[in-house]
């Protein structure tokens, strides 16, 4: 068997092992191959994913591997948007609505209830609404990390400058030599009696490290701390059951891995006590952007039991006139994912990422990886690594920019780079980041690895 053939199997095994240990799966993840169309071949996995690829409109002349920045809606979602935009124009339809029906479809796929799910504008919008809605005061601490995105960093900075909230950062490790418990220990060392919120990205967009959400949520619960997850990359990539994560808030994108319309996101707000997953009382939280919150006030206290006392998501959803077309597009994107099976999509994307990491390790060595590979609790479908023959070149951001530009211009492959602090390094590192998703195949992974190896040789 060829080395690549062997690695394919090894990669698949690693991914499957990883999934079984998370213990998380979507209610919508079907066990059997669900036909996408009457003539869909179910006998062969490869044939199935080729059929899935055909659901998308992506330019065939480009290999697009930057889903971490933006996804691409399936053709049927584009058709839905087009049709409904036209109906709205013809009928001059308004949408003063809480879109309860769309939230119900989405919530089912994400393992939560409609009263806990808002279709937001994007991750940044969700993070801003979370931080503005919490009751934070001078001296309260937010415990976060040094690898956050501006989507989380900016609303935290506003809370610091406006209220005197203190931001404390855990320095995150990089590479393969780490385990989920290391993260729990690092956060535990930094928690103080003033810590009110733990806010972290899972995965981080820098290294594609999936911080162990459940373990960190348990730690926060034990200290009475509110958890906020920047889960930009979770919807559509991971088949997570949001309740089972045990967190209080999660903001994600619906336009990246979920491949919904641009300008859409998913905002989860725990709205009840979950005896099994999060028995802590609900934090004080205000739906600060709303045109439907009762003007006269008088809402009951937030629930202290397993049933919501009111639908908090509807107050954040119903803000002036909305877009029926965009909301129908989100519904349709969720339906496509649920039809294929969210667990199956996660398995495929992570299997490709595991394969990519094995091929990178074979060529560049395991030390080139910024993403973890061997602890299945830390992996996702974002993979970061140092592509340069001279490892020190990863400190040269301009060279890293050039690498990404030449991958596009000379090989027709779209990837991106990221830059971030690394413990023990005076300078930031700027590796490349590759996304593997449901419209990719194993030969796409081989193609990007061969191209990067070739380009690295030219740039040595
Ligand atoms: C971790 C993380 N948070 C937030 C964002 C912002 O996402 P959005 O465009 O959905 O606001 C990104 C975008 O890449 C991200 O990677």
UniProtKB/TrEMBL annotation:
Superkingdom of the source species: Bacteria
Signal peptide (residue range): 1-30
GO molecular function, one term: transaminase activity
Aminotransferase class V domain segment(s): 83-448
Pfam families, per database record: Aminotran_5
PROSITE patterns hit by this protein: TAT
UniProt cross-references to InterPro entries, sorted A to Z: Aminotrans_V_dom, PyrdxlP-dep_Trfase, PyrdxlP-dep_Trfase_major, PyrdxlP-dep_Trfase_small, TAT_signal
Keywords from the UniProt entry: Aminotransferase, Pyridoxal phosphate, Signal, Transferase
Classification via SUPFAM superfamilies: PLP-dependent transferases (SSF53383)
Lipid biosynthesis listed as a keyword: no
Protein name, per record: Aminotransferase class V-fold PLP-dependent enzyme
């Amino acid at each position: 068997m060829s080395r690549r053939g062997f690695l394919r199997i090894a990669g698949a095994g690693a991914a499957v092992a990883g999934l079984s240990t998370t213990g998380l799966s979507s209610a919508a993840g079907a066990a059997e191959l669900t036909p996408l169309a009457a003539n869909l071949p179910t006998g062969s996995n490869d044939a199935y994913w080729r059929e899935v690829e055909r659901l998308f409109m992506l330019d065939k002349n480009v290999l697009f591997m930057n889903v971490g920045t933006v996804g691409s809606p399936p053709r049927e979602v584009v058709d839905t948007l087009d049709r409904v935009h036209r109906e709205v124009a013809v009928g001059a339809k308004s949408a003063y609505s809480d879109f309860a029906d769309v939230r119900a479809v989405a919530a089912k796929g994400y393992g939560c209830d409609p009263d806990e799910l808002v279709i937001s504008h994007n991750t940044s919008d969700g993070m801003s609404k979370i931080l503005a809605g919490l009751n934070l005061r001078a001296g309260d601490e937010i415990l976060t990390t040094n690898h956050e995105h501006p989507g989380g960093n900016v609303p935290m900075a506003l809370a610091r400058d406006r209220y005197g909230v203190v931001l404390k950062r855990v320095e995150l490790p990089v590479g393969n030599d780490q385990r989920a418990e290391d993260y729990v220990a690092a956060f535990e060392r930094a928690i103080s009696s003033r810590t009110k919120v733990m806010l972290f990205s899972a995965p981080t967009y820098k290294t594609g490290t999936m911080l162990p959400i459940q373990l960190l949520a348990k730690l926060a619960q034990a200290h009475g701390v509110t958890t906020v997850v920047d889960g930009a990359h979770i919807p559509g990539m991971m088949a997570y059951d949001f309740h089972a994560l045990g967190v209080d808030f999660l903001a994600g994108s619906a336009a990246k891995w979920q491949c919904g319309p641009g300008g859409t996101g998913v905002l989860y707000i725990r709205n009840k006590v979950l005896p099994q997953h999060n028995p802590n009382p609900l934090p004080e939280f205000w739906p600060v952007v709303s045109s439907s919150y009762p003007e006269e006030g008088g809402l009951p206290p937030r629930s202290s039991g397993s049933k919501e006392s009111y639908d908090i998501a509807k107050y954040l959803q119903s803000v002036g006139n909305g877009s029926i077309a965009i909301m129908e597009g989100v519904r349709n994107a969720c339906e496509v994912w649920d039809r294929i099976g969210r667990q199956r999509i996660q398995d495929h994307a992570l299997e490709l990422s595991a394969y990519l990491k094995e091929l990178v390790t074979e060529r560049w060595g395991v030390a080139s990886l910024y993403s973890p590979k061997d602890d299945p609790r830390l992996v996702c479908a974002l993979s970061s690594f140092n592509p340069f023959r001279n490892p020190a070149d990863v400190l040269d951001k301009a060279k890293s920019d050039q690498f990404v530009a030449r991958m596009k211009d000379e090989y027709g492959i779209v990837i991106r780079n990221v830059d971030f602090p690394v413990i023990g390094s005076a300078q930031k590192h700027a590796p490349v980041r590759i996304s593997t998703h449901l419209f990719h195949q194993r030969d796409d992974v081989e193609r990007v690895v061969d191209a990067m190896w070739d380009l690295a040789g030219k740039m040595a």
